[in-house]
Amino acid sequence: MLYELFSLLSGSIKAFAVFEYITLRAMLACATAMAIGLFFGPKVIRKLTELKIGQAVRTYGPQEHLVKNGTPTMGGVLILIAIGISTLLWADLSNRFVWVVLLVTMGFGAIGWIDDYRKVVYRNPEGMSSREKFFWQALVGLVAAIYLSFAVSVPANAELWPLFKDWVLSGFTMPLPSRADLIVPFFKNVSYPLGVFGFAALTWMVIVGASNAVNLTDGLDGLAIMPTVMVGAALGIFAYVVGRVDYSAYLLFPYIPGASEMMVLCAALGGAGLAFLWFNAYPAQVFMGDVGALALGGMLGTIAVITRQEIVFFIMGGVFVVETLSVMIQVMWFKYTKKRYGEGRRILRMAPLHHHFEVGGWKETQVVVRFWIITIMLVLVGLSTLKLR
Protein backbone atom coordinates (compact mmCIF):
# COMPACT_ATOMS: atom_id res chain seq x y z
CA MET A 1 0.00 0.00 0.00
CA LEU A 2 2.78 2.43 0.86
CA TYR A 3 4.60 1.40 -2.30
CA GLU A 4 1.59 2.38 -4.43
CA LEU A 5 1.20 5.65 -2.51
CA PHE A 6 4.85 6.62 -2.90
CA SER A 7 4.76 5.66 -6.58
CA LEU A 8 1.94 8.12 -7.12
CA LEU A 9 3.70 10.84 -5.14
CA SER A 10 6.97 10.30 -7.01
CA GLY A 11 5.37 11.89 -10.05
CA SER A 12 5.34 15.27 -8.31
CA ILE A 13 7.93 14.77 -5.59
CA LYS A 14 11.06 13.09 -7.00
CA ALA A 15 12.34 12.12 -3.54
CA PHE A 16 9.68 9.43 -3.30
CA ALA A 17 11.14 7.67 -6.35
CA VAL A 18 13.67 6.07 -4.02
CA PHE A 19 10.95 3.65 -2.92
CA GLU A 20 11.03 2.09 -6.39
CA TYR A 21 14.21 0.30 -5.31
CA ILE A 22 13.47 -3.22 -4.17
CA THR A 23 16.50 -3.30 -1.88
CA LEU A 24 15.20 -0.32 0.12
CA ARG A 25 11.72 -1.75 0.37
CA ALA A 26 13.18 -5.08 1.47
CA MET A 27 15.07 -3.39 4.30
CA LEU A 28 11.94 -1.48 5.32
CA ALA A 29 9.86 -4.67 5.20
CA CYS A 30 12.40 -6.41 7.44
CA ALA A 31 12.44 -3.52 9.92
CA THR A 32 8.64 -3.24 9.92
CA ALA A 33 8.12 -6.95 10.52
CA MET A 34 10.70 -6.97 13.29
CA ALA A 35 9.15 -3.93 14.97
CA ILE A 36 5.68 -5.51 14.84
CA GLY A 37 6.99 -8.77 16.27
CA LEU A 38 8.96 -7.18 19.10
CA PHE A 39 6.19 -4.74 20.03
CA PHE A 40 3.27 -7.16 19.98
CA GLY A 41 5.21 -10.22 21.16
CA PRO A 42 4.73 -9.67 24.91
CA LYS A 43 1.06 -8.81 24.38
CA VAL A 44 0.45 -11.95 22.32
CA ILE A 45 2.24 -14.14 24.89
CA ARG A 46 0.16 -12.66 27.73
CA LYS A 47 -3.05 -13.21 25.77
CA LEU A 48 -2.14 -16.80 24.92
CA THR A 49 -1.35 -17.40 28.59
CA GLU A 50 -4.67 -15.90 29.69
CA LEU A 51 -6.53 -18.09 27.22
CA LYS A 52 -4.53 -21.08 28.49
CA ILE A 53 -3.34 -21.89 24.98
CA GLY A 54 -0.44 -23.99 26.15
CA GLN A 55 1.63 -26.66 24.47
CA ALA A 56 0.64 -30.25 25.27
CA VAL A 57 3.99 -32.06 25.27
CA ARG A 58 3.97 -35.61 23.90
CA THR A 59 4.63 -38.11 26.68
CA TYR A 60 6.79 -40.31 24.45
CA GLY A 61 9.29 -37.52 23.81
CA PRO A 62 12.37 -36.73 25.92
CA GLN A 63 11.41 -36.51 29.59
CA GLU A 64 13.27 -33.21 29.94
CA HIS A 65 10.63 -31.61 27.71
CA LEU A 66 7.80 -32.30 30.14
CA VAL A 67 8.67 -29.07 31.97
CA LYS A 68 7.61 -27.22 28.81
CA ASN A 69 4.06 -28.45 29.16
CA GLY A 70 1.75 -25.43 29.23
CA THR A 71 4.16 -23.04 27.48
CA PRO A 72 2.06 -20.76 25.22
CA THR A 73 1.88 -22.06 21.66
CA MET A 74 0.39 -20.80 18.38
CA GLY A 75 2.92 -17.96 18.48
CA GLY A 76 3.30 -18.47 14.74
CA VAL A 77 0.26 -16.22 14.40
CA LEU A 78 2.53 -13.33 15.40
CA ILE A 79 4.97 -14.24 12.61
CA LEU A 80 2.24 -14.42 10.00
CA ILE A 81 0.72 -11.10 11.06
CA ALA A 82 4.12 -9.40 10.90
CA ILE A 83 4.86 -10.89 7.47
CA GLY A 84 1.40 -10.05 6.16
CA ILE A 85 1.36 -6.42 7.31
CA SER A 86 4.91 -5.61 6.21
CA THR A 87 4.32 -7.26 2.82
CA LEU A 88 1.11 -5.34 2.25
CA LEU A 89 2.89 -2.11 3.16
CA TRP A 90 6.09 -2.46 1.15
CA ALA A 91 5.55 -5.00 -1.65
CA ASP A 92 4.24 -4.29 -5.12
CA LEU A 93 0.70 -5.64 -4.74
CA SER A 94 0.24 -5.81 -8.52
CA ASN A 95 2.88 -8.54 -8.61
CA ARG A 96 1.24 -11.94 -9.16
CA PHE A 97 3.89 -13.89 -7.27
CA VAL A 98 3.35 -11.84 -4.12
CA TRP A 99 -0.25 -13.06 -3.88
CA VAL A 100 0.65 -16.66 -4.63
CA VAL A 101 3.18 -16.74 -1.80
CA LEU A 102 0.82 -14.98 0.61
CA LEU A 103 -2.08 -17.30 -0.19
CA VAL A 104 0.05 -20.43 0.19
CA THR A 105 1.53 -19.11 3.45
CA MET A 106 -1.84 -18.21 4.94
CA GLY A 107 -3.43 -21.40 3.61
CA PHE A 108 -0.90 -23.60 5.36
CA GLY A 109 -1.14 -21.32 8.38
CA ALA A 110 -4.89 -21.95 8.54
CA ILE A 111 -4.30 -25.71 8.48
CA GLY A 112 -1.77 -25.35 11.29
CA TRP A 113 -4.12 -23.11 13.26
CA ILE A 114 -6.88 -25.72 13.17
CA ASP A 115 -4.38 -28.40 14.19
CA ASP A 116 -3.09 -26.31 17.10
CA TYR A 117 -6.62 -25.34 18.15
CA ARG A 118 -7.63 -28.97 18.43
CA LYS A 119 -4.53 -29.69 20.48
CA VAL A 120 -5.36 -26.86 22.87
CA VAL A 121 -9.14 -27.25 23.15
CA TYR A 122 -9.28 -31.04 23.21
CA ARG A 123 -5.92 -31.45 24.98
CA ASN A 124 -4.84 -33.91 22.32
CA PRO A 125 -1.10 -33.67 21.55
CA GLU A 126 -1.72 -35.18 18.10
CA GLY A 127 -4.16 -32.50 16.87
CA MET A 128 -5.57 -33.17 13.38
CA SER A 129 -5.25 -36.67 12.04
CA SER A 130 -2.33 -37.14 9.69
CA ARG A 131 -4.66 -38.05 6.85
CA GLU A 132 -6.84 -34.95 7.27
CA LYS A 133 -3.87 -32.62 7.58
CA PHE A 134 -2.19 -34.10 4.52
CA PHE A 135 -5.37 -33.79 2.46
CA TRP A 136 -5.63 -30.04 3.01
CA GLN A 137 -1.90 -29.53 2.53
CA ALA A 138 -2.07 -31.50 -0.71
CA LEU A 139 -5.01 -29.42 -1.92
CA VAL A 140 -3.34 -26.06 -1.27
CA GLY A 141 -0.08 -27.33 -2.75
CA LEU A 142 -1.84 -28.66 -5.85
CA VAL A 143 -3.61 -25.36 -6.59
CA ALA A 144 -0.33 -23.46 -6.24
CA ALA A 145 1.54 -26.03 -8.35
CA ILE A 146 -0.92 -25.83 -11.24
CA TYR A 147 -0.89 -22.03 -11.27
CA LEU A 148 2.90 -21.75 -11.02
CA SER A 149 3.36 -24.26 -13.84
CA PHE A 150 2.10 -21.60 -16.23
CA ALA A 151 2.85 -18.40 -14.26
CA VAL A 152 6.59 -19.04 -14.14
CA SER A 153 6.57 -19.74 -17.88
CA VAL A 154 5.12 -16.38 -18.96
CA PRO A 155 6.02 -12.79 -18.06
CA ALA A 156 2.47 -11.70 -17.20
CA ASN A 157 -0.91 -13.15 -16.22
CA ALA A 158 -2.40 -11.98 -19.54
CA GLU A 159 -0.42 -14.71 -21.27
CA LEU A 160 -1.50 -17.51 -18.94
CA TRP A 161 -4.70 -18.46 -20.72
CA PRO A 162 -3.18 -18.54 -24.24
CA LEU A 163 -0.37 -20.77 -22.98
CA PHE A 164 -2.86 -23.08 -21.27
CA LYS A 165 -4.99 -23.32 -24.44
CA ASP A 166 -1.94 -24.10 -26.56
CA TRP A 167 -0.95 -26.83 -24.13
CA VAL A 168 -4.43 -28.40 -24.25
CA LEU A 169 -4.60 -28.20 -28.05
CA SER A 170 -1.22 -29.90 -28.29
CA GLY A 171 -2.67 -32.95 -26.57
CA PHE A 172 -0.99 -32.00 -23.27
CA THR A 173 2.43 -32.58 -24.81
CA MET A 174 3.65 -29.02 -25.47
CA PRO A 175 6.87 -28.28 -23.55
CA LEU A 176 7.14 -25.26 -21.29
CA PRO A 177 9.61 -22.43 -22.02
CA SER A 178 13.19 -23.01 -20.89
CA ARG A 179 12.79 -20.72 -17.87
CA ALA A 180 10.63 -23.45 -16.32
CA ASP A 181 13.37 -26.09 -16.59
CA LEU A 182 14.87 -27.71 -13.51
CA ILE A 183 18.24 -26.03 -12.95
CA VAL A 184 21.17 -28.17 -11.85
CA PRO A 185 23.56 -26.11 -9.67
CA PHE A 186 27.32 -25.92 -10.26
CA PHE A 187 26.87 -26.46 -14.02
CA LYS A 188 26.60 -23.63 -16.55
CA ASN A 189 24.17 -25.05 -19.05
CA VAL A 190 22.67 -28.13 -17.42
CA SER A 191 18.93 -28.06 -16.93
CA TYR A 192 16.10 -30.50 -17.52
CA PRO A 193 12.77 -29.67 -19.18
CA LEU A 194 9.94 -30.88 -16.96
CA GLY A 195 6.78 -30.26 -18.94
CA VAL A 196 3.57 -29.17 -17.24
CA PHE A 197 3.01 -32.43 -15.39
CA GLY A 198 6.61 -32.70 -14.24
CA PHE A 199 6.73 -29.06 -13.14
CA ALA A 200 3.46 -29.36 -11.22
CA ALA A 201 4.54 -32.61 -9.54
CA LEU A 202 7.91 -31.19 -8.51
CA THR A 203 6.33 -27.96 -7.26
CA TRP A 204 3.76 -29.87 -5.24
CA MET A 205 6.45 -32.00 -3.60
CA VAL A 206 8.63 -28.99 -2.82
CA ILE A 207 5.83 -26.95 -1.22
CA VAL A 208 4.18 -29.76 0.75
CA GLY A 209 7.51 -31.37 1.62
CA ALA A 210 9.04 -28.12 2.86
CA SER A 211 5.97 -27.39 4.98
CA ASN A 212 6.15 -30.75 6.75
CA ALA A 213 9.95 -30.63 7.01
CA VAL A 214 9.96 -27.33 8.92
CA ASN A 215 7.16 -28.66 11.11
CA LEU A 216 9.16 -31.77 12.02
CA THR A 217 12.22 -29.64 12.77
CA ASP A 218 10.29 -27.40 15.15
CA GLY A 219 10.93 -29.48 18.26
CA LEU A 220 13.46 -27.46 20.27
CA ASP A 221 13.61 -23.84 21.37
CA GLY A 222 14.74 -21.75 18.41
CA LEU A 223 15.69 -24.76 16.29
CA ALA A 224 13.38 -24.19 13.31
CA ILE A 225 13.07 -20.42 13.15
CA MET A 226 16.73 -19.50 12.66
CA PRO A 227 17.37 -21.90 9.74
CA THR A 228 14.11 -20.64 8.24
CA VAL A 229 15.38 -17.06 8.44
CA MET A 230 18.77 -17.96 6.96
CA VAL A 231 17.37 -19.99 4.08
CA GLY A 232 14.77 -17.29 3.44
CA ALA A 233 17.47 -14.61 3.29
CA ALA A 234 19.44 -16.64 0.76
CA LEU A 235 16.34 -17.19 -1.38
CA GLY A 236 15.82 -13.43 -1.30
CA ILE A 237 19.23 -12.99 -2.93
CA PHE A 238 18.36 -15.54 -5.62
CA ALA A 239 15.04 -13.76 -6.18
CA TYR A 240 16.83 -10.47 -6.75
CA VAL A 241 19.14 -12.09 -9.29
CA VAL A 242 16.58 -14.01 -11.36
CA GLY A 243 14.20 -11.05 -11.33
CA ARG A 244 16.66 -8.76 -13.11
CA VAL A 245 17.51 -9.05 -16.79
CA ASP A 246 21.13 -7.97 -16.36
CA TYR A 247 22.10 -10.04 -13.31
CA SER A 248 20.31 -13.19 -14.48
CA ALA A 249 21.99 -12.99 -17.91
CA TYR A 250 25.43 -12.41 -16.39
CA LEU A 251 25.10 -15.27 -13.89
CA LEU A 252 23.42 -17.61 -16.42
CA PHE A 253 20.07 -17.87 -14.65
CA PRO A 254 16.68 -17.76 -16.33
CA TYR A 255 15.01 -14.37 -16.16
CA ILE A 256 11.70 -14.59 -14.25
CA PRO A 257 9.84 -11.28 -14.56
CA GLY A 258 8.45 -10.24 -11.18
CA ALA A 259 10.49 -12.73 -9.16
CA SER A 260 12.66 -9.99 -7.64
CA GLU A 261 9.68 -8.86 -5.56
CA MET A 262 10.13 -12.06 -3.54
CA MET A 263 13.07 -10.29 -1.92
CA VAL A 264 10.60 -8.09 -0.03
CA LEU A 265 8.72 -11.15 1.29
CA CYS A 266 11.97 -12.88 2.27
CA ALA A 267 13.04 -9.75 4.14
CA ALA A 268 9.69 -9.62 5.92
CA LEU A 269 10.16 -13.27 6.86
CA GLY A 270 13.61 -12.47 8.21
CA GLY A 271 12.41 -9.59 10.36
CA ALA A 272 9.41 -11.47 11.70
CA GLY A 273 11.51 -14.57 12.35
CA LEU A 274 14.21 -12.72 14.28
CA ALA A 275 11.57 -10.94 16.37
CA PHE A 276 9.98 -14.28 17.17
CA LEU A 277 13.36 -15.76 18.08
CA TRP A 278 13.65 -13.08 20.77
CA PHE A 279 10.84 -14.86 22.62
CA ASN A 280 11.47 -18.38 21.32
CA ALA A 281 15.15 -18.61 22.35
CA TYR A 282 15.92 -21.04 25.16
CA PRO A 283 14.09 -21.17 27.50
CA ALA A 284 11.22 -20.40 25.16
CA GLN A 285 8.43 -18.09 26.28
CA VAL A 286 6.29 -19.17 23.33
CA PHE A 287 6.24 -21.84 20.62
CA MET A 288 5.29 -21.14 17.02
CA GLY A 289 3.12 -24.24 16.75
CA ASP A 290 1.95 -25.79 13.51
CA VAL A 291 0.35 -22.50 12.50
CA GLY A 292 3.84 -21.06 12.11
CA ALA A 293 5.88 -24.09 11.06
CA LEU A 294 3.57 -25.30 8.29
CA ALA A 295 3.13 -21.78 6.93
CA LEU A 296 6.82 -20.88 6.89
CA GLY A 297 7.78 -24.15 5.23
CA GLY A 298 5.16 -23.64 2.54
CA MET A 299 6.36 -20.07 2.03
CA LEU A 300 9.99 -21.13 1.54
CA GLY A 301 9.02 -23.90 -0.85
CA THR A 302 6.90 -21.59 -2.99
CA ILE A 303 9.64 -18.97 -3.26
CA ALA A 304 12.17 -21.67 -4.14
CA VAL A 305 9.98 -22.74 -7.06
CA ILE A 306 9.41 -19.18 -8.29
CA THR A 307 13.16 -18.49 -8.26
CA ARG A 308 13.83 -21.88 -9.94
CA GLN A 309 16.14 -22.99 -7.13
CA GLU A 310 14.54 -26.24 -6.00
CA ILE A 311 17.81 -28.19 -5.82
CA VAL A 312 19.68 -25.34 -4.14
CA PHE A 313 16.80 -25.07 -1.65
CA PHE A 314 17.24 -28.77 -0.94
CA ILE A 315 20.92 -28.11 -0.17
CA MET A 316 20.44 -25.00 1.96
CA GLY A 317 17.58 -26.58 3.88
CA GLY A 318 19.66 -29.67 4.59
CA VAL A 319 18.74 -29.62 8.27
CA PHE A 320 15.04 -29.79 7.36
CA VAL A 321 15.73 -32.58 4.88
CA VAL A 322 17.74 -34.71 7.31
CA GLU A 323 15.17 -34.22 10.07
CA THR A 324 12.44 -35.46 7.74
CA LEU A 325 14.48 -38.41 6.49
CA SER A 326 15.27 -39.41 10.08
CA VAL A 327 11.55 -39.77 10.82
CA MET A 328 10.83 -41.64 7.60
CA ILE A 329 13.73 -44.07 8.08
CA GLN A 330 12.90 -44.65 11.73
CA VAL A 331 9.24 -45.43 10.99
CA MET A 332 9.96 -47.65 8.00
CA TRP A 333 12.64 -49.63 9.84
CA PHE A 334 10.42 -50.05 12.89
CA LYS A 335 7.54 -51.39 10.76
CA TYR A 336 9.84 -53.65 8.76
CA THR A 337 11.52 -55.22 11.79
CA LYS A 338 8.20 -55.64 13.58
CA LYS A 339 6.80 -57.52 10.60
CA ARG A 340 9.94 -59.61 10.11
CA TYR A 341 11.01 -60.30 13.69
CA GLY A 342 7.81 -59.64 15.62
CA GLU A 343 9.49 -56.77 17.46
CA GLY A 344 9.95 -53.23 16.23
CA ARG A 345 13.55 -51.97 16.28
CA ARG A 346 14.97 -48.48 15.94
CA ILE A 347 17.95 -47.10 14.07
CA LEU A 348 18.01 -43.83 16.01
CA ARG A 349 17.61 -43.44 19.75
CA MET A 350 14.62 -41.22 19.00
CA ALA A 351 13.27 -39.34 15.99
CA PRO A 352 13.35 -36.65 14.68
CA LEU A 353 17.13 -36.40 14.60
CA HIS A 354 17.43 -33.58 17.16
CA HIS A 355 15.92 -35.85 19.79
CA HIS A 356 18.48 -38.55 18.91
CA PHE A 357 21.29 -36.21 19.95
CA GLU A 358 19.42 -35.06 23.04
CA VAL A 359 18.98 -38.62 24.26
CA GLY A 360 22.65 -39.18 23.43
CA GLY A 361 23.72 -36.51 25.93
CA TRP A 362 23.75 -33.23 24.03
CA LYS A 363 22.16 -30.28 25.80
CA GLU A 364 19.20 -28.71 24.04
CA THR A 365 21.12 -25.50 23.39
CA GLN A 366 24.04 -27.49 21.94
CA VAL A 367 21.77 -29.23 19.46
CA VAL A 368 20.15 -25.95 18.42
CA VAL A 369 23.35 -23.93 17.95
CA ARG A 370 25.14 -26.77 16.15
CA PHE A 371 22.23 -27.18 13.76
CA TRP A 372 22.34 -23.41 13.17
CA ILE A 373 26.05 -23.65 12.31
CA ILE A 374 25.37 -26.49 9.89
CA THR A 375 22.66 -24.41 8.23
CA ILE A 376 25.03 -21.45 7.85
CA MET A 377 27.52 -23.72 6.09
CA LEU A 378 24.84 -25.17 3.80
CA VAL A 379 23.48 -21.72 2.95
CA LEU A 380 26.98 -20.59 1.99
CA VAL A 381 27.28 -23.64 -0.27
CA GLY A 382 23.96 -22.71 -1.85
CA LEU A 383 24.99 -19.09 -2.37
CA SER A 384 28.24 -20.22 -3.98
CA THR A 385 26.19 -21.62 -6.87
CA LEU A 386 25.56 -18.03 -7.93
CA LYS A 387 29.09 -17.93 -9.33
CA LEU A 388 30.57 -21.45 -9.17
CA ARG A 389 29.06 -22.82 -12.35
Report on the architecture of this protein.
65% of the residues lie in helices and 1% in strands. With 389 residues, it is mainly alpha-helical. A two-stranded antiparallel sheet has the order 1-2. β1 (182-183) and β2 (191-192) form a beta hairpin. α3 (76-90) packs antiparallel against α4, α3 packs parallel to α11 and α7 crosses α13 (318-341). The longest helix has 29 residues, at 22-50.
Detail the topology: elements first, then pairings.
Layout: H1 2-9, H2 22-50, H3 76-90, H4 96-121, H5 130-151, H6 160-169, E1 182-183, E2 191-192, H7 195-217, H8 225-242, H9 245-250, H10 262-280, H11 289-306, H12 310-316, H13 318-341, H14 353-359, H15 364-384
What is the overall silhouette? globular
Q: What is the assembly state of the chains in this entry?
A: single chain
Helix percent band: 55-70%
Separation, N- and C-terminal Cα atoms: 39 Å
| Number of separate strands | 2
Number of helices: 15
Average pLDDT over all residues: 91
Q: Can you list the strand order of the major beta sheet?
A: 1-2
Strand content: under 5%
Structural class: mainly alpha
What is the CA-atom radius of gyration, in angstroms?
21 Å
Write the element-wise H/E pattern from the N-terminal end onward.
HHHHHHEEHHHHHHHHH
Give the biggest sheet. Answer: 2 strands, antiparallel
Poorly predicted sequence stretches spanning 5 or more consecutive residues: none
Salient structural properties:
1% strand, 389 residues, globular, 15 helices
